[in-house]
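This part of the workshop introduces the protein records we will be handling. Backbone structure tokens are a discrete shorthand for how the chain folds in space. Once this layout is familiar, the rest of the handout is easier to follow. The record below serves as our worked example for the rest of this section.
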Amino acid sequence: MTTTHPFGLIGAGLGLRRALLPALQTSVPDSINFFEVSPENWVGVGGHLGKLFRSLTERHRFVAHGLALSLGGPAPLDTAFLRELKQFLDYHDFALYTEHLSFCSDEGHFYDLYPIPFTEQAVKHVAGRLRRAQDILERPIALENASYYVQPPQAEMDELNFINAVLSEADCHLHLDVNNIYVNSVNHGYDPVNFLRGLPGERIVYGHVAGHDLEPSGLIIDTHGQNTIAPVWDLLAEAYRCFGLFPTLVERDSNIPPLAELLVEVEQIHTLQQHHVDCLGTQNISEAAA
């Protein structure tokens, strides 16, 4: 399959975790079109593990999905980290770098992702920090819609309007996490399809699907520790109907099963993409994505 994707991504991807390296060492299944890693887990890694990682980035397309930039945080941007990150992204020729629309630090790192107040001031704050980070990295940053569990204080707008305002103010790409839409829709009581349809599809660079944990209280926790459930797959199919095809990746961060089990979900992405093509009556994925 070929597409005219601005970052050269196609089809279906998989989040690369260290537990998967032995199974991928000799060969990568054809169904995996690209990988994603969190650079914080790989910057500075050397020795045998670093060589193995380099052997994969030399042969396959990679994207970076950051955890620690804290674009919505109050503390100054960590410019030393950004410069180290730039070297890493350049060395491995990463296709794209994305970050969460959230914050995770103040006077130190919190090791969690927290929601930003949905205010006009926060829109300008995030957009300004994103532009500064892009200048240092010398590459665009796409923002991912984040999951959250407590309504941000002093909100002046809802989540959807806030995301759209930040994307517009920063004029940046959207990293669409379909599972996060579903998680937030359950936890905060809104219609996920209406929310999805309100997003700017023309800004999507790639998508995520993942699993989550259901608490006895009914709260959903975005753990990426389970298989993707049917309503999330349905929402991904709706996203393809609304916006056309876009590359999509399976995230799994805990309870990591054997590679063969993860490939079932990768193949499910391919199946949904092909179904979209068949419904349109086009000849291939490229036509559907054009």
Summary: Confidence is low (pLDDT under 50) at residues 105-111.
